[in-house]
């Protein structure tokens, strides 16, 4: 029997979000219904509301979530009712050319639930943010979007791995291959950059330089594991990073802003043959100009990090275990917990840079 639950809807471009009754169908083949316990407020949710992703309103927002599987449809074998799971927005297919070559974190054919959740009042189909839609008491997803982790972790902490925190940690440990003794610089210290700092520390980086234009962010970055900080409004970040790395530049520079000027800083702040990782997401009109001779002459690799190049089934349980062992403080990313009716306010605080993460707890 389809169920009715409360969910946060973005009804139209730039309109305030509101709570509505959402109809959640029973899970069909390959699907699962998850009782959401916590869901972080991410920039991408705000971009949906602003019409910046697409115009398929109304959206059911929320996608950094953890909860308990309530029911599964036919053919689902990896999870079962009662499992504590983190939701991911890249359920891998196992069949595309990336999956078949043993690189499923690049899967080119990820999927979501087939059925749609609807608005109880009008019967209108909802577009769930990133195929999840978890600012709701329950949500319908593809079973592959559920990854079972140790249930001893607090849901408001676990859910964050579903998006921004995984993107940042993965940018360092998966894409950047940060290793013991490396020097790392992270440009932009919001939730994603801070996670890249925590990931670099976890990987054994010896020097971790945090760069931001906001001193408050640099202070937090230090508590996340940065060994040095640079305010790039006051100092040239390329010179500062070189100075802090024996005059050479960092082995790995992670760009977590998503702008051409910060990408250029990352490009020139890295040592010869070093690695640049772009995890910040640019907008369509942005362009990059670099002397091609420098691209050649400086060598190394220029990489992008999609969702931290994570493989949820490999990375989520491992990172939760490290957290439970006290080796990765995921709790530090939770600035505040809020109710379902406070998402609009949380967007405002996020916009002003006041929070790393507000997390809705249900
Ligand atoms: N130089 C350095 N830091 C900057 C600059 C700049 N020119 N402009 C902004 N910043 C800093 C901000 O002060 C802030 O601390 O970058 C940080 C961005 O953090 P958030 O806005 O909290 O964003 P976050 O959630 O960390 O995401 C960062 O990754 O996933 C993408 O879409 C996301 O592009 C975004 C990026
Ligand atoms: Zn695939
Ligand atoms: Zn997100």
UniProtKB/TrEMBL annotation:
Its cofactor is Zn(2+). It is an enzyme of class 1 (oxidoreductase). Keywords: Metal-binding, Oxidoreductase, Zinc. PROSITE patterns: ADH_ZINC. Its EC number is 1.1.1.306. Pfam families: ADH_N, ADH_zinc_N. InterPro entries: ADH-like_C, ADH-like_N, ADH_Zn_CS, ER, GroES-like_sf, MycoS_dep_FDH, NAD(P)-bd_dom_sf. Residues 12-362 form the Enoyl reductase (ER) domain. It comes from the Bacteria. SMART domains: PKS_ER (SM00829). Signal peptide: none annotated. The keyword Metal-binding applies. Gene3D superfamilies: Medium-chain alcohol dehydrogenases, catalytic domain, NAD(P)-binding Rossmann-like Domain. GO terms for molecular function: mycothiol-dependent formaldehyde dehydrogenase activity; zinc ion binding. PANTHER family: NAD-DEPENDENT ALCOHOL DEHYDROGENASE, S-NITROSOMYCOTHIOL REDUCTASE MSCR. Belongs to the zinc-containing alcohol dehydrogenase family. This is S-(Hydroxymethyl)mycothiol dehydrogenase.
């Amino acid at each position: 029997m389809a169920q009715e639950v409360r969910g946060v809807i973005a009804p139209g471009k730039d309109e305030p979000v509101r709570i509505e009754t959402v109809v959640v169908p029973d899970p069909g083949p390959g699907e699962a219904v998850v009782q959401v316990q916590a869901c972080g407020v991410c920039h991408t949710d705000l971009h949906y509301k602003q019409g910046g992703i697409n115009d398929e309103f109304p959206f059911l927002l929320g996608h950094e979530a953890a909860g308990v599987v309530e029911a599964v449809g036919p053919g689902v074998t990896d999870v079962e009712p009662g499992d504590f799971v983190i939701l991911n927005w890249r359920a891998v297919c196992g069949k595309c050319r990336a999956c078949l070559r043993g690189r499923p974190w690049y899967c080119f054919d990820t999927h979501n639930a087939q059925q749609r959740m609807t608005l109880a009042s009008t019967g209108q189909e909802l577009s769930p943010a990133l195929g999840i839609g978890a600012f709701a008491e329950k949500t319908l997803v593809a079973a592959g979007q559920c990854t079972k982790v140790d249930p001893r972790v607090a849901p408001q902490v676990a859910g964050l791995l579903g998006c921004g925190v995984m993107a940042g940690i993965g940018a360092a440990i998966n894409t950047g291959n940060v290793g013991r003794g490396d020097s790392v610089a992270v440009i932009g210290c919001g939730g994603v950059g801070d996670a890249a700092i925590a990931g670099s520390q976890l990987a054994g980086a010896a020097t971790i330089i945090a760069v931001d234009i906001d001193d408050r962010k640099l202070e937090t970055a230090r508590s996340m594991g940065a060994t040095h900080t640079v305010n790039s409004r006051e100092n040239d970040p390329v010179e500062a990073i070189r100075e802090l790395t024996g005059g050479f530049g960092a082995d790995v520079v992670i760009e977590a802003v998503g702008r051409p000027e910060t990408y250029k800083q990352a490009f020139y702040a890295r040592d010869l043959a070093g690695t640049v990782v772009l995890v910040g997401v640019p907008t369509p009109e942005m362009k990059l100009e670099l002397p091609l001779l420098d691209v050649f002459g400086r060598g190394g690799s220029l990489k992008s990090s999609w969702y931290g190049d994570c493989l949820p089934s490999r990375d989520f349980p491992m990172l939760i275990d490290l957290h439970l062992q006290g080796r990765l403080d995921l709790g530090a990313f939770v600035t505040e917990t809020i109710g379902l009716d406070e998402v609009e306010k949380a967007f405002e605080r996020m916009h002003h840079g006041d929070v790393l993460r507000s997390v809705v707890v249900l």
